Amino acid sequence: MLRAAVILPFIGLLLTIVPLRAADTLPATLDDATFWRFIANFSEPEGYFRYENLLSNETSYQTVIPALKRIGEPGGAYIGVGPEQNFSYIAALEPKIAFIVDIRQQNMLELLMYKALFETSIDRAEFVSQLFSRNRPPGLDAMTTAQELFKAFESQTCDSRLLGQTLQRVNERLITQHRFPLADDAQKTIKHILDTFCAGGPQIDYGFANAPSNLTAPSYANLMTATDGRGTNWSYLANEDNFRRIREMQLKNLIVPVTGDFAGMKTLRAIGAYLKHHQAAVGAFYVSNVEQYLKEEQKTRFRTNVSVLPVTPSSMLIRFVPPESTVLEPVRNFLFKSGSLFHLLK
């Protein structure tokens, strides 16, 4: 007979996957104190990862977006991992709230840096200017394509004066205005990230900060100008509407970065409890290729954590399968396939 400690999480699973009929009651905005409380209370101690993931290396991340938009509908929650690729998924899927969970505290701080840059940039060109510490070229406006945007910045070089101004602006936004209690080490990490983006520019890639490295990866510019394979660019810098959608969520504190372990005992469970309280479901959970780094016992804990997330039949896991493929799997399929619930209850 299975121990109750094993069975009970999966009984909870049966209740969790019942389609939610009640309209979600997620707030339209979070105040600064609540936003920081989520970061503090939902986070777990940071863990180790061998690479410094300042940007994605997944060229195929857009290919599943058309299917995700057909399957799901705006609203509910999004959960993701890693840095900027989440913004493109969020812009396309239009959730009401997003939680980005990464085992590296640096990722949480990088996303807070992004938050400040979104909030202090009136448009894409100003955002790119601040992110890479490069002066804004003339002639860029709302009609500028992503290709034109990054082409215009090719001739610009890192401006140390602008870098200093941007760092000061980020700190003022996060610490003075939002009153987030960022320690000296956290501020140094944010400075390191901005320094690295300044040094690498729009051609920075996944391997830039991991030298010496034989990693080959697309540049930031490549990722932002890519398409879904059908000619549509869904990146968060593809157009002003996408950028504005993310900026508005940042201004409302609705993109929440936390330090968490997919196989941990706290973060995903806390997010699940919060969403259940607000009668909201997870529309999409971008897990990248995190599962390949989990040991067998960690995979079991990850599956248990996913089981406590409220989902609907259209809730999807988004996986990156190296070297160049992104695939979807319904969350319910993941939980019910051989080796999970039915196997355990036999």
Keyphrases for this structure?
single chain; 346 residues; alpha/beta; six-stranded mixed β-sheet; 15 helices; 6 strands; disordered N terminus; disordered C terminus
Secondary structure elements and pairings:
Elements: H1 4-16, H2 32-42, H3 65-71, E1 77-80, H4 85-93, E2 97-102, H5 105-119, H6 124-132, H7 146-153, H8 160-177, H9 184-200, H10 220-225, H11 240-251, E3 255-259, H12 267-277, E4 282-288, H13 296-307, E5 316-321, E6 325-330, H14 331-336, H15 341-345
Parallel strand pairs: 1-2, 1-4, 2-3, 4-5
Antiparallel strand pairs: 5-6
- Domain module count: 1
How far is the N terminus from the C terminus?
10 Å
SSE string, helices as H and strands as E: HHHEHEHHHHHHHEHEHEEHH
Helix count equals 15
Give the amount of beta strand, in percent: 5-15%
Mean pLDDT: 90
Overall shape: it is: globular
Helix content: 40-55%
> Which class of secondary structure composition applies to the elements?
alpha/beta
- Please provide the count of β strands: 6
Spans where pLDDT lies below 50 across 5 or more residues: 1-21, 338-346
Largest sheet: 6 strands, mixed
Q: How large is the radius of gyration?
A: 20 Å
